[in-house]
Each structure stands twice: as structure tokens, then as C-alpha cells.
Write a structure and sequence with these properties.
It is built from 11 helices and 8 strands. By secondary structure, it is an alpha/beta fold. The protein has a single domain, classed as Aldolase class I (TIM Barrel). α5 crosses α7 and α7 packs parallel to α8. The termini are close together. The structure holds 1,3-dihydroxyacetonephosphate. The site of 1,3-dihydroxyacetonephosphate has 14 residues, from β8. Homodimer. Pathway: Carbohydrate biosynthesis. This is Triosephosphate isomerase. Keywords: Isomerase.
């Protein structure tokens, strides 16, 4: 546990006005959090809000894009390349979010290719995986997670800039948070899979964070689970509650 610094990401998804972003940044800037030796914080505004956030956000928080294209800059209307993100000084990108898998139809293969491309260009990747309710009820949670990780493991060798976000689809935006036992069980299985398929070192050092209805009222308890190394927060990251979630790093 000690080797893995707690990681809290705020995924703002497709939300925000200039006014609400300014107000949220102001709230975050005034918040007290443990030092950067205890917690790493990343926020992910929409692409067009990134410059505003970059110029105004406290410097101990980093920024992540919510997506990147699978190739470099070029004739890809509507996309953002890793090169553009690197040029803007954005250190992280979220890839494979279940909303993009489900709504845009991104496959695990495409997400693996994107992960490889972005890592090669120097970005850190927050790689999202997780099962649907039907898959959980069919007892396929681990199978689904392993199936989403396998194409990535086949393509990358350096995991030092990968954070795995386990986000069960049934818990996202539903208020139905996984219990600490449910999340811990899957996190431990993912870590075991990494040990088996990649290496013991990668398993020991890779942060596996939980996402899905994380809030100020449940983050302290979730943080105590030994294999939960942080959170990817949606709805609560748009509110002052995000500061409370960040502070749960002290419970880990
Ligand atoms: O999808 C999520 C973060 O990426 C989680 O969203 P909620 O926290 O709103 O459930």
C-alpha cells in the first residue's frame, strides 16, 4: 500500500459553463488537502474548458483529457491527439470510460491501441474497466475486467504511467455505490491478474482506483480497503464534496 500513492481523479464529463467552472476552480483552490506526498489529484474538464482550468487551477492538481485519438494529429475531425495534449502540457488522459464504450462503441482493442499510443507519447493513462449489471449478475465480473485488460497488456510493456479505474457500470451515476467488500474483491482480483499476466512488480505498484457513485459520505470507508488506491469521481467532483473525497486519502 505504502508504495502506491493515493490517486483521486475528478471526471467532469460533458458538464460546465464558464461560470460554473470558475466557481468550482475557486472552491478547489481554497480547499485544504493532504500534501502531494499523500495524494495525487487530477481533474478532467471538457476539452474546451481545459485552458481556463489550466490557467486558474492550483498547481498541485493536474489535468486530464477525457479522451484522445488512437493516432497522431491529422485528418480526424472532432478528435484530439496525444500530440496536441502533450503540446498543451496536459499530463493525463482518461481512456476506455464505459460511457465511451457504450455510447460511442469503443472496443477494448481500440482502447488498447489508444493506451499504447498515448503512453508512447508520454501521457499518463487512466484506463477504465468494469462490468455491467447483467454481467455482474451472471457472475462474470472478473472475466469482463480481465477481457478488457488483456488487449492492453498485449500491447504495452511499461505500466508506470497507467492507473486502472475499476468502474462497475451499474454504480456509475446511479447512487448505487459498490460496497467496500465488493470493490475490494474485484480490485484484489485485478491485482492478481496483473501479477499473473504481467509481473509481480507491476501488480504491486499499479494504482487501482474505484469509480461509481463515490461521494463525501462513502469515500472514507472505501479508502480503507487495502487494494483501493483512490477514486475516479463523477458527479461529486463537480461539488465542494470533491475536497472531502480527496481528504479520504488520509484513511488509506
Ligand atoms: O463515471 C464515473 C467517473 O468516471 C463515476 O461517475 P459518478 O461518480 O457520477 O457515479
Amino acid at each position: 500500500m505504502g508504495a502506491r500513492k493515493f490517486f483521486v481523479g475528478g471526471n467532469w464529463k460533458c458538464n460546465g459553463t464558464i461560470k460554473s467552472v470558475e466557481s468550482l476552480v475557486d472552491t478547489l483552490n481554497k480547499g485544504e488537502i493532504p500534501g502531494t506526498d499523500v495524494v495525487e489529484v487530477v481533474v478532467s474538464p471538457t476539452a474546451v474548458h481545459i485552458p481556463l482550468v489550466q490557467s486558474s487551477l492550483r498547481k498541485d492538481f493536474a489535468i486530464a483529457a477525457q479522451n484522445a485519438w488512437v493516432k497522431g494529429s491529422g485528418a480526424y475531425t472532432g478528435e484530439l491527439s496525444a500530440e496536441i495534449l502533450v503540446d498543451l502540457g496536459i499530463p493525463w488522459v482518461i481512456l476506455g470510460h464505459s460511457e465511451r464504450r457504450a455510447l460511442i462503441g469503443e472496443s477494448s482493442e481500440l482502447i488498447a491501441d489508444k493506451s499504447k499510443y498515448c503512453l508512447d507519447k508520454g501521457l499518463g493513462v487512466i484506463l477504465c474497466i468494469g462490468e455491467s449489471l447483467e454481467e455482474r449478475e451472471a457472475g462474470k465480473t472478473f472475466e469482463v475486467c480481465a477481457g478488457q485488460l488483456a488487449p492492453v497488456a498485449a500491447k504495452i510493456s511499461d505500466w508506470s504511467k497507467v492507473v486502472i479505474a475499476y468502474e462497475p457500470v451499474w454504480a456509475i451515476g446511479t447512487g448505487k455505490v459498490a460496497s467496500p467488500e465488493q470493490a475490494q474483491e474485484t480490485h484484489a482480483e485485478i491485482r492478481g491478474w496483473l501479477a499473473d499476466k504481467v509481473s509481480a512488480d507491476v501488480a504491486a505498484s499499479t494504482r487501482i482506483i474505484y469509480g461509481g457513485s463515490v461521494s463525501a459520505s462513502n469515500s472514507d470507508t472505501l479508502a480503507t480497503a487495502p487494494d483501493i488506491d483512490g477514486f475516479l469521481v463523477g458527479g461529486a467532483s463537480l461539488k465542494p464534496d470533491f475536497l472531502k473525497v480527496i481528504n479520504s486519502a488520509t484513511k488509506a
